[in-house]
Amino acid sequence: MPRQRILSSDEQTRFDAPPDLSAIDRKKYFFVSQALGDVLASFRSPVNRVCFLLMLGYFRATHRFYGNRYHPQDMAHVARQLDVPPGSDYMSSYDGETTFYRHRALILEFLGFRPFDRHARRSVTTHLHPLIRSQIRPKILFQEAIDFLNNQKTEIPSSGTLTSLILDAVRQHKNELVSRIRKMLPDESKRALDALFEKAGQIGKPAETDTQDRPPNASANESEIAHTQRARLTLLKSFSHSMKPSKIRDNLADRQTLCDLYRPLRETIRSLDLTPDGLRYYAHSVIKSEVFQISRRADPERHLHLLCFIAHQYFHLHDLLIDTLLVAAQNTRNACQREHRDKYYRERADHRRDMRSLVVNVRKAMCHPLEDIRKIVFTERMPDTEKVRRIRDVLRQREEERVSLENRLVGLEENLEPGNDEREYYAVLESKSVKLQNKVAEIIRMLDFQGNDEVLMEAIRHYQNRKGDVTRTAPDSFLDEKESRFLTGENGKFRISLYKALLYDKTADAVKSGALNVEDSYRYRSLDDYLIPPGEWKERKAEMLEEAGLTKFADCRALLSKMKKDLDRRYTKTNRNIMKGRNGHIVFHKDGGYHLRTPKQEESEAESLGSFFPKDRYVSLLEALWTVNRHSRFLDAFRHWQTKYAKKRPPDEVLFAGIIGYGGQVGIGKIARISRQISGSELEQAVNWYFSPGNVAEGNDLVLGLLDRLWLPQAYQRERGRLHTSSDGQKRGVEVDCLHARHSFKYFGQEKGVSSCTMIDERHFLSHSLIISVADSEAHYVIDLLMHNEVVKSDIHSTDTGGYTEILFGVISLLCVSFAPRIKNFGRQKLYSFRRRKEYEKKKYKILPDGYINEEFIEEHWDDILRFVATIKLKVTSASQLFKRLNSY
């Protein structure tokens, strides 16, 4: 099998060739200053002067040396500049390696650069080690090494030297992993791992979970027999997203199987010191491979893949189970509120009818007798004894009606008592508890929760120790006084179902808020687990700040002082424009409030572009893809998932078929049937191994790079050197079981869907998109969109109201990007200032701050803020993950 290569032959040739300089570039890079003139004057030979300046100019341009390679036009330019006769091949007369290395050292010293020596090799290897742990693709490592050397002002070596350095580091890391497994993995664990290749039935999943693989005419028994012929490893490769209790129990059975495998191997897996991305890489190699492909690997390497597979599936399944808990709890809460509200509306007509009847009865039983009594009392000629007798007769005649009315009044009074609505709500919650228990009871019992909410943790531990069999002695301190009061029914009986429903609901809220977390997961660990470790941050803080480009923000007081002046200047400018009548977009209300009017966009006349396109001609999608690929070579980004060896890539036609199948939502099976000379197995194999998110993203960047070099897109950019981008979510329906798909009646009616969050710039470049849940805030993903690629670098970014938070303003400012969201009802937003409100009121300003910025608090926690932003900049953890955990605290 051929040795792995990082760059293609064409890329390697372009990298090792001298740069193609324009006439302006030659004047810039071959400029001779007075200091450089003194150095050139020390050379006796014109050949040495010409070659030295040629090497110096190339190094200024690329920070690299190219030996005896050069462009003749560059040589001629240098010769003319030094008043040396042009037309000669001076490089052929250059005095060998000794002179070259002497001039190389002189150039490095003159420009203040370090040579690429042993120390530089170690520095590059150390810098790349975290990325190698994450199994980042070698081409990204190659570019990262170049960026690191540029930042460190170090000479960049040839592509072959850098490739060997990176591949040796990757190979050494792989050997270290294999060596640790060979030393730490006991024979018993090896046998347990190898047992995953055995055929087994009823392990992890019952036969009915694989009905999608059952032939249409196969019976249940035949399907079960086929299921038992599958390896245990295959049964653990995928999990269900369904909310049906039977599917959840299948996932719980898988979790128990994985737990039995993971617990004895936990220390071995942790000793590998792999990042989550590193675990995913080896795990997905197992998921994508057939069982026989994994079983054929040598022992240590096979066990490495299996260990990562078990850890990844264990973490991933925990995330899935927690998602199930959150969705089930939220669905139950919504159902209770909906039923309670509907019950209230249904009973409202009955309440009106009862009140109308009550008024009639009060008039008959109370008002009419009182009127009769009033007439009797005020009759002057009637003796008192007669009055008393008649009054007694009136009261005796209405006694039965009066008693009935009093009972109805008592009932009405009870219905109007405070807390009656809550009593009805908890009655509804109790009625839905059994359905909720069927989904989440075992999840609460099996997961290992951690957190700082000791009161809730006590209740969960009690629930787990009793295996869900709770009684009146169960801890209820996690409930408020009102909820605790409703736990006892009117008959004095403990309401077990209500207690469990409240426990599940509180647990779900605690997980979302970050008060509870699960260590063995990807998305629900504590916030500190996602940040740069405190020890490493303390030891390498200055170095990390430099790598992240945050050195200028290290001094908190200086930064706050600058921000104080800038913010005060903006308050002053805005208010003065309003006071002088220069701002026609703001309208003030009588109560002191205001709103902003969006100016109407001016209509512009433009000619139709139809004349620029071919007439009556059909251009196939395949031809369009082929043309774009010919100019951008985006198919070069589609590399095999495994990075150890260079694989022979499928033909371009197969990759095009996969792109059309997915991009056109045709499907891989159908596109294979309608395509000539493309078999279904060939297409499926190509999609399985070559269509990874990283490959697709790199291919998209290559297309964006092509567009960026064209003239026409730049015509849409309003300001040169200032790129405006924006992001928004587009709702899409989902027809399959997916825990990330949620209900949204506004967009999907009774169905479920997700949101496709896309970033676009003013040149109409679609740089990146993410699929998120409609229940998630788009603001969590804005920074991920901004930092995704190196082609589209935003200077100012806009979102709608749903795409911003106050925290996001602060973080994006530290990323040196201006944040300009289009906020609805801006007049209702809370404004902040470093200065007191009274200072602006004295100046009769109309736009006033509502809150005061606490500088002492910011300065106290500034180190934590820098660690948070450095974690994002260095891509230790995705920004979306950090924001989701941070906003929950």
Polypeptide structure, described:
Strands 5, 6, 7, 8, 9 and 10 form a six-stranded mixed beta sheet that branches. Strands 1-2 form a two-stranded antiparallel sheet. The protein starts with 8 loop residues before the first helix and ends with a helix. The longest helix is centred in the middle third of the chain and has 79 residues, at 299-377. Helix 4 packs across helix 5 (72-81), helix 27 (621-632) crosses helix 31 and helix 28 (652-663) crosses helix 29 (668-674). The chain folds into six domains: 9-181, no CATH class; 187-210 and 223-331, no CATH class; 346-421; 423-525, no CATH class; 618-704, no CATH class; 714-887, no CATH class. The chain contains 38 helices and twelve strands.
Task: Record the SSE blueprint.
Elements: H1 9-16, H2 23-29, H3 34-41, H4 46-62, H5 72-81, H6 96-111, H7 118-133, H8 138-151, H9 159-184, H10 187-194, H11 220-228, H12 232-235, H13 245-271, H14 276-288, H15 291-295, H16 299-377, H17 384-397, H18 399-415, H19 420-431, H20 433-446, E1 449-451, H21 454-465, H22 481-486, H23 496-513, E2 516-518, H24 527-530, H25 534-548, H26 556-579, E3 586-588, E4 594-596, H27 621-632, H28 652-663, H29 668-674, H30 680-690, H31 693-708, E5 724-734, E6 742-743, H32 745-748, E7 752-761, E8 766-773, H33 782-786, E9 796-798, H34 806-814, E10 818-819, E11 832-833, H35 837-842, E12 851-852, H36 855-860, H37 862-873, H38 879-887
Parallel strand pairs: 5-9, 9-10, 11-12
Antiparallel strand pairs: 1-2, 3-4, 5-7, 6-7, 7-8
